[in-house]
Amino acid sequence: MILLDGKATSNTIKDEIAEEVSKLKALGKKTPHLAAVLVGSDGASMTYVNSKVKACERVGFKSTLVKLEESISEEALLKEIEKLNNNIDIDGFIVQLPLPKHIDEQKVIMAVHPDKDVDGFHPTNVGKMALNLPTFLPATPYGILELLERYNVETSGKHVVVIGRSHIVGEPMSILLAQKRKYGNATVTLTHSRTKNLKEITLQADMIVAALGIPEFLTGEMVKDNVVIIDVGITRVDDTTKPRGYRLAGDVHFESVSKKASYITPVPGGVGPMTIAMLLKNTLLACSRND
After folding, report:
1. Which of 239, 269, 278, 291 is the most buried if burial means most Cβ atoms within 10 Å?
2. CB count, 10 Å around CB of 99?
3. pTM for this entry
4. How far is CA 201 from CA 160, 189, 208, in A?
5. What CATH number matches the domain at 27-113, 3.40.50.10860, 2.60.40.10, 3.40.50.1820, 2.60.40.1080?
6. Do 149 and 9 form a contact (C-beta atoms < 8 A)?
């Protein structure tokens, strides 16, 4: 069993990006600039945004953090987004999800200019992705593709089962892996909460992408030998034996599944760090388009 180490791989990618940024600066070209919008003070969201800011510092990007009160109106938030759209110094920006209940997330996603949408969530970019046209790929699926490529995990002709149909991971992942691309050409089954006989389907899978948000849902008895496992989930599970009172668990029961897997991503340290690395890659792409 080989561990798909997202932390080490993302550090390699960050080093590559840092080198690119050094070259840009040496040539007197623009320094890539990523902004993040954080509404409210949700603990997990703050952690994610802070790690993105740190990643920007590491690779030599400029970064801007726009912190807004949880009580901000939808109209006021849309005005802040419009400011970022019009700021020529900012190459790309993200709005950290989830947003407070009184704000329509879809409306906010639609308000981000497609050319600055480094999360790859805008319908224009989703449509281009579906047609296999050059665009910003959603950061988490992009990170998974990159991890498969760096470890040379064969996908062509394989049966991939994706569990979960979110717009952020499950659906784009199923599209990308089915496409005619180097790390694609798979036969993909997209499963979800209404899927019947899920275990029968997962037992046929050469690769499983678990992205449903239920801790330790996929167990050893649901997979066949030599399966490739991509665990996208990360949930805080109460654990009194831990100093913080909780542990982080993926959607995969690591202990039982890892005994059968040929490759598996750990949680934490698997897909998560890759997501941030790909966000930086998309920002570099946005900057090169603005050059």
Report:
1. 278
2. 22
3. 0.95
4. 10, 8, 10
5. 3.40.50.10860
6. no
| Integer CA distances (angstroms), 119 to 49, 104, 136, in order | 13, 17, 7
Identical topology for domains 27-113 and 139-272: yes
Q: Do 110 and 118 form a contact (C-beta atoms < 8 A)? A: no
How crowded is residue 268: how many other Cβ atoms within 10 Å of its Cβ? 15
Residue 258 identity: S
pLDDT, tens digit, 9 for 90 and up, residues 59-102: 999 999 999 999 999 999 999 999 999 999 999 999 999 999 99
DSSP secondary structure string for all residues of 166-230: -TTTHHHHHHHHHSSSTT---EEEEE-TT-SSHHHHHTT-SEEEE-S--TT-B-GGGS-TT-EEE
Q: Angle 6-26/43-59 helices, nearest 10 degrees?
A: 50
> CA–CA separation, 147 vs 183, rounded Å?
10
The secondary structure of residue 159, as a DSSP letter, is E
Rounded CA-CA distance 20/31 in Å is 10
Residues in the chain: 291
Strand partners, 248: 236
* Domain locations in the chain as residue ranges: 27-113, 139-272
Tell me: the pLDDT tens digits for 244-258? 899 999 999 999 999
Unique residue bearing structure tokens 């694609």: 184
Q: Which residues are catalytic?
A: 52, 96, 119
Is residue 276 a contact partner of residue 6, using CB atoms and an 8 Å limit?
no
Residue 277 has, within 13 A of its CA and on its CB side, a CA count of: 26
